[in-house]
Amino acid sequence: MRRSFKFLLRPTSKQAAALAHCLEDHRQLYNAALEHRRIAYRKAGVTVRYGDQSADLKHIRADDPGGQARWSFSSQQATLRRLDKAFAMFFARVKAGRTPGFPRFKGRGWYDTVEWPKDGDGCRWDSQPHHPVTIYVRLQGIGHVRVHQHRRVLGNIKTISVKHEASRWFVVLSCDDVPAEALPATGAMAGIDMGVASLATTSDGDHLEHKRHFAASAGLLAAAQRGLARKKRGSNRRRKTVARVAALHAKVRRQRLDAAHKAAKALVAGYDLIVHEALKVTNMTKRAAPKPDGNGGYLPNGAAAKSGLNRSILDAGWGVFLTILSHKAESAGRELIAVNPANTSRTCAECGHCARENRVTQAEFRCQQCGYEAHADVNAAINILRAGLALRRVARAA
Questions:
Q1: What is the number of H-type helices and E-type strands within the chain?
Q2: pLDDT tens readout for residues 34-61
Q3: Which domains does the chain have, with CATH numbers?
Q4: What are the residue boundaries of the Probable transposase IS891/IS1136/IS1341 domain, all occurrences included (predicted)?
């Protein structure tokens, strides 16, 4: 199986400046390649492909010895492949009838990763193996950069990427042939219901705590954003405040990721079979549609309440949690099933009666037909587990 390992870099001030220059030159290369494709098609109707732009790289490097020529040829090819993939996805969306989203130019804050497609070609992991304590990664044009390696790397390293997040630099190793770490069987199974009061609730009645990291940092973020609004564009004070806001958001992201890893690990360790809802978080967090009143105004549409719910869903990080759960389940040899969430919170787990009135409050479920009472999320988790078991029986019988 393939797995990624992410480590914090500890560059010197000169290396940090070189990393910033490397990222900026790759951003400019991406934008120039995009402009090349746009102009060629608009002016002459010619489609420029990756092979054409890759062949032009040697001329670009020869004309810019102090800029583009400093960096790895392979990493620049990876940047051109990134653009080619963006176009491929654009045409795939057009063909599927979805909203296409034409590839865009990358601003300074929207390009944060440089990739080296092969270990040993312009980069080298553990470039100083004789060092007794520290691990280094060597990057062409930058040098040997110290790595804070907090865990062992498994499998065969295929690609090496450097990513800039707020004021920090990270190295990401994508490894193939990572051995699975199968856990001993427990004989237990559970359905989980995602929520905002609790991150998830199991069919056994356990509630995984929702830490609300964004809400906890909302005061600091609001103060930083107000300070940013008062700063003059282009000033050093504004640059520092932007870095402060980015650092706060990065901290929230790391906290949410850490909580998701811990919750997923607990579930994978405790159950052989885990059933969850197949949620479309992007659709669930869309803003409320406006309701014109026919006189040039708008009717109340619950936008404020919907906005608060969206914020709580995104703060819970359902998508991140389910992705991590999927990866951990695969690595541990656990079975994971996704089911349609429709009516799981309205159906009685005791008699099967489905009605909107069964959900008395956010946390209380009382069946209007048989009188069964339970925590609403536990009732939903039981229904989710039953739906997953039914799907598994059908799949095995087929």
A1: 10, 16
A2: 999 999 999 999 999 999 999 999 999 9
A3: 3-176 (no CATH), 189-213+251-397 (3.30.420)
A4: 181-287
